[in-house]
Amino acid sequence: MTGKLKKPANISIVALSAKCLELNPIENVWQFMRDNWPSNRIFTFHDNIVGHCCEAWNKLVDQSWRIMTTGRHQRARRF
């Protein structure tokens, strides 16, 4: 946080603790992906890992509404 930062009047900066990962919307999206798609698997090759991750990412992109709802954690709604 610096006083030198010039920001538009309609933007609010909210300082988040580094230990509050649940308030970072992308962390919730990553957690959802880990819990639902590429988890509980044994990967034998690097290409196998990359393929499963790409498949999971494409599933998520096809469900854009899920990004919005998953990224918006209940505890983060107060901001």
From TrEMBL:
Superkingdom, natural source: Bacteria
Gene3D superfamilies: Ribonuclease H-like superfamily/Ribonuclease H
GO terms assigned for molecular function: nucleic acid binding
Protein's name according to its UniProt entry: Tc1-like transposase DDE domain-containing protein
